[in-house]
Structure prediction request, 287 residues.
Amino acid sequence: MKWKTSRFLLDLTTPRVMGIVNATPDSFSDGGNHADVNSALRHCEKLLRDGADILDIGAESTRPGAVAVPLDEELARLVPVLREAVRLGVPVSVDSYKPGVMQVALDLGADIINDIWALRWHDAATDSLTATQVVVGHPACGVCLMHMQGEPSTMQLHPMLGDAVAQVKLFLQKAVNELHGAGVETSRIVIDPGIGFGKTPAQNFALLARQVDLLELACPLLVGWSRKSSLAALVGLTAGSVGGGPDERVVSSVTAAVLAVERGASIVRVHDVRETVQALKVLSAIR
Prediction:
């Protein structure tokens, strides 16, 4: 199985590690650590040394409770980092749902659009194009379609009800079919169940336990468990407690990433690249 992106054809027969670059002051895990251009680029280089196959750059936090930032502010954060990151010789993904940001990113050479809204978001006052039009209009960019219940500012106040696996599967199938109908070939598309995006801990773990159901959609699966609050709740690391911060969730995050790959995920999106790469080598050795 291969993933076609703007500049690269990624072989997914080996699981790939996507390293997270938060060029924001307020991300839930490392907000502010890489908010200026130099520190963000140093972090990109570190992730590559640690073994990342893909860089995923985001310039707006979409953590639970996050407030959206204006288009021009997101671009001001993203563009200087992206201009340099596309020179590093690896696929670069841009984590954004705004069509205007997507278009600028692709024009600058980004390889992948990673959209938490699965191309549904549109503000006619700020974007003349829809996200689907941007992706369809590009000859080769990769796209990741993610499931989210609600929106970041309120999604965990009103998480989804019922069987998350069936609902996520149906949503992603419709999103893929719509892109197919618009002329985007399957080789450009991956899907993401959206762990932590409007779901309860039990629903998140159900998505992991029954992840094989999503493979029936015949698209590569990208999964992001890294440092999510469901892991903290499971192991008793509550927010605000001593030792309860996101950087204390490395072990559980790596475990979840390995289990996701064991259950068929092709790409894992992580903060802790070195540790995840090492763990996946152990999994590879026994396969």
